[in-house]
Structure formats: C-alpha cells, structure tokens
Amino acid sequence: MIVIRDLIKQYRNKFALYNVNLHIKPGEFVFLVGSSGAGKSTLMKMLYLEERPTRGSVLVGGININNLSPNKIPNLRRCMGIVFQDYKLLQNHTVYDNIAYVIRTMGVSSKEIEARVYGALKVVGLEDKYRSKPCELSGGEQQRVSIARAIVNGPPLLIADEPTGNLDPKNSMEVMQILEQVNQRGITILVSTHDHAIVNHFRKRVITLEKGQIVRDVQAGTYD
Question: Coil, strand or helix: which one is 100?
C-alpha cells in the first residue's frame, strides 16, 4: 500500500526527514509516534502531496506519487481518506453536506450519495446528527464526522494526523475504536499520535521517528 525508499526532506540546512525507508502492507494498522518535531506530520504530508521529497520516492498503491503533476493531486487525495486534528469541517454546512461534499464532484447520483453518506454515518454512530452543524457537536462528534467524510468514498487508505489531539481520554478511545472497526473492513490505517495510552491499549504496529529518522519498528508494540 505504502512504500517509501531513501526519503529525504530538507528545509535549507535542516533535515525534517532523513533516509526514511518504510513498507506498509494493505490492511495494516500502523501508529507513527515520536516527539514534536520528529517528522511525523512531514511524513504524513508526503503521502497526500502537501509536501514533496527533496530526494527519494513515495509509492502509494504502486504509483510513484512524486511524479504526479499538480492537476493529478486531487485524484490522488480522492483515493485516500484524511483525518486531521482540527477536523477541518465546513462550519456553515450540515453534517450531511460535509460528508456528501467529497463525492458530489464525482458524478454520483443523489440516491447513491445519500446511501453512502448514511452508511458512513452509521459506521461512526451519528445517524441522528445529519442535520446538525459542526458548532452543535462536541469535539468527539466532530472528529467522528471527519472520519465519516474520510471513508464515504471507500478509500483503500486512511491517514489520521493526531486525530485525538484535541479530545479527552473517553472521546479519544471512542475515535480509535471506530478507526479499528474501519481497519477491519480492509482499509489500511496510518495514525500519527502523541497519545501513549492509546498506542499501549491497541497494540498495533508502532513506528517511532526521532529527528527525522525511523529508530524503531515493532509489531504489536507500545509507545516506549
């Protein structure tokens, strides 16, 4: 699903990532951990081309995305779900419209859009909130909406950058349980996090970054 080879990202005289090599298989659930400034967000941004490498290659689904022209980037991002720490919901739109927005530009019929949106809302347990606006929801509910938006198109890959960073422990656990259920449907999950308790609870593959380099890669691992 993801193959990274000899990846380097340099900003002037500073390396954000240095000689990163990584292989994530289809269907895996992987935690990416490390202190602030370790390179987690930079690595995530490489996958959806918000950033490009200085050197090295990034393959997603067998495609070397380094070579994609700017007009192909939206197509790349439609093939993955992306969940952010700050939700990035459209505040003046309903929950339904926030989720439907992803697929309305793809020529899908209204009936199919409705079926997909309600299917995604069912996965995250928010079927009764479809008319609500984000400001009417708790932080945990808003993050669940963002997960619904990320999976509504049935992507093979979901990337979550600090998805529980703004949530309390209870909501953090609920969000991660939803991501685990999504993973059980065959979707590859990559989560960057600082949350020791979450990582230690779920015992997935744990990759640790330190000063832009992978220093640890453990199956069924813990944070430390």
Answer: helix
Specify the 3-state DSSP secondary structure of 26: coil
Q: Which of 46, 85, 25 is nearest to 209 (CA)?
A: 46
pLDDT tens for each residue of 35-58: 988 999 999 999 999 999 999 999
CA distance between the termini of the chain: 26
Looking at residue 107, its pLDDT comes to 81
Which residue, chain included where needed, has tokens 């640790």?
Answer: 208
If you average pLDDT over residues 184-207, what whole number do you get? 96
* 139-190 confidence digits (pLDDT tens): 999 999 999 999 999 999 999 999 999 999 999 999 999 999 999 999 999 9
Strand-strand pairing, 157-161 and 188-193: parallel
Q: Judging by beta carbons within 10 Å of its beta carbon (0-12, 13-18, 19+), is residue 209 exposed, middle or buried? A: buried
What single letter denotes the amino acid at residue 82? I
Crossing angle for the helix pair 110-124 and 169-183, nearest 10 degrees? 130
- pLDDT above 70 as % of the chain: 100
How many Cβ atoms are within 10 Å of 70's Cβ, its own excluded? 7
* Burial state string for 1-36 with b = 16 or more CB within 10 A and e = fewer than 16: bbbbbebebeeeeeebbbebebebeeebbbbbbbee
**CA 195 – CA 165 distance, rounded (Å):** 8
What is the CA 100 to chain-centroid distance, rounded?
18
Beta-bridged to residue 213, according to DSSP, are 210
